[in-house]
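User: Before I run my own analysis I want an independent prediction to cross-check against. Here's the chain; please return only the structure tokens and, at the end, one sentence I can use as a sanity check.
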Amino acid sequence: MQNYQLTVIIERDEDGRFLAICPALQGCYTEGESEAEARDLIADAIRLHIESRLERGEPIPAEVSTEKVTVSV
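Assistant: Structure tokens:
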């Protein structure tokens, strides 16, 4: 069993729900009623996404780097 470490972004939408996104895995996102629920659900979504890619022989994208960028508007 191999471990994967991927970046997850959690945002709160206008309805108060929490959206969790894994940018490295296109289309891998979920939402929950709390931040904790969104974290649990995205972990499951990532696992399922990776399992599916491995079964199809597709590569798992490797993150090169992550950073926060500040812009003035």
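Sanity check: DSSP finds one helix and three strands in the chain.
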